[in-house]
């Protein structure tokens, strides 16, 4: 069975009041916030770099406080001209509970439901597969505080990935010992081929991608795995 990520589940473990209504969420220009988002992703996968444009897309959507995927992601290049397809992970939870580390780890922890051998998922795995999707090499995240959930203040956290992952029937990454796919000239650095993806991005833009092949359905754009976490 193919990976099932079209689950529209809203998991409510408890809707309690968030602690502080006026706590601030970090801005997308906050160096500490950027560092945390990037470092956390890179703890779980090969290197991604921050992309301010993706963070602006994430910020604009997070501020809407709507727990659903950004509509403009459905149309190639609509949200951001650098990427035809952008992936998106969402987290909504109590503001007092929110840290990038908590949310990104929560996404990554879906790996326990994912079976790499037959690409099956026993629960929700789409956040995890997007976090580790090898071809996604840029990330931009944003958080907003949202006061419209039953009076409680929640944090809405959005990460956008370029290019988007979660292509149907594709492996998130190729399994094997680190660096076995590096070119012969490349040395292995921190278990990675020291390949500069910014160069690839420039080249890709010159190549003008022709759009999506029929099988290239971006799951996270079409569907959602919702996680509503317990507020403190
Ligand atoms: C996938 O493989 C695992 C064993 O590796 C098995 O338990 C599971 O039922 C399989 N899932 C599907 C959907 O085939
Ligand atoms: C993720 O899983 C680890 C290991 O099972 C666990 O210690 C941690 O609390 C989990 N984190 C979150 C945010 O769920
Ligand atoms: C990657 O290439 C870009 C554009 O050429 C450059 O700005 C950037 O500093 C390079 N990054 C690394 C880590 O070499």
UniProtKB/TrEMBL annotation:
Domain SCP, first and last residues per copy: 32-169
Residue ranges the record marks as coiled coil: none
SUPFAM superfamilies attached to this UniProt entry: PR-1-like (SSF55797)
Signal peptide (residue range): 1-18
Protein family: Belongs to the CRISP family.
PANTHER family for the chain: CYSTEINE-RICH SECRETORY PROTEIN-RELATED
Record-given protein name: GLIPR1 like 1
Gene transcribed to yield this protein: GLIPR1L1
